[in-house]
Amino acid sequence: MTASFPILPPQTHTGAVTLRVRDLPGLTEFYGTLLGLTRLAEGHNRITLGAHGTPLLHLEGDASLPPAPLSRPGLYHTAFLLPSRADLGRWLRYAAGLNAAGMGLRLGTGDHLVSEAIYLNDPEGNGIEVYRDRNRDAWTWEDGQVKMDTKAVNVEDLLAAAGDTMFEGAPAGTAVSHVHLKVGNAAQAAQFYAQTLGLDVVADMGSAAFLSWGGYHHHIGLNEWHSRGQSAASTLETGLGDVEILTPDLSGLRTHLSGQEGVQDSGDALTLHDPWGNRLTVREVAQQ
């Protein structure tokens, strides 16, 4: 069933990610050191990290939680977008320096045609992508699909883009611009996200799908590479707690989801879960 009105406007995008972690002090220090995030708020077993006043990551600590197995649906990675190629080059040089100092990061790269990305995991196995976008006029679209691939990043050229400037913390404009999730069935998940949140499927790769609002290359990635056939966890584990989605207008989604079970309405936000237990909070915020 397709809604006859926009479910969410094209300006909708991803916001902060919540992670459930065992070692709250350790993960706080890790993300602060790795990405130059600063502490914005602190509560009981909860710390919010961000850049220039913008929340990007909420860490909720519970040392009693068991670690989620790799096959469990949940977070594949949180993707932190840097404003420019020079910013990414500066960060990569800095990350290499952390490794030289003994931090032991295992870095991978991916040139996706629309973007260049560096990949790694945090100490509890949560995936991280740090990336920069190519200009939109360099993206190739055909029949509503954006062309993406995974090739090696030209690391030397990327480092050269930074010149002799140094990484000095997360630059202004750093954002969580997409979130990639593990699901039990990528095709079914793509249908759920398209029909429930009004996302467009912009790349269908069979075992993975990529969806967005407003013509972005993707705000939500979905894959079944490790989790095919799996269902939602029946017990609480470490890993993804929530994906925040920010929109200037919640009214279309509120109408669309009216009467559906499992949807919580707190006035400025609607909270729901996908079929694999991934929690989504769609929050109305003033357009900037």
Automatic annotation (TrEMBL):
Cofactors, names only: Fe(2+)
Coiled-coil spans in chain: none
Keyword tags: Aromatic hydrocarbons catabolism, Dioxygenase, Iron, Metal-binding, Oxidoreductase
A Pfam family it matches: Glyoxalase
MF (Gene Ontology): dioxygenase activity; ferrous iron binding; lactoylglutathione lyase activity
Keyword Hydrolase: no
UniProt xrefs under PROSITE patterns: EXTRADIOL_DIOXYGENAS, GLYOXALASE_I_1, VOC
VOC domain segment(s): 13-133, 175-288
Family: Belongs to the extradiol ring-cleavage dioxygenase family.
Protein name from the UniProt record: Glyoxalase
Organism, as annotated: Deinococcus puniceus
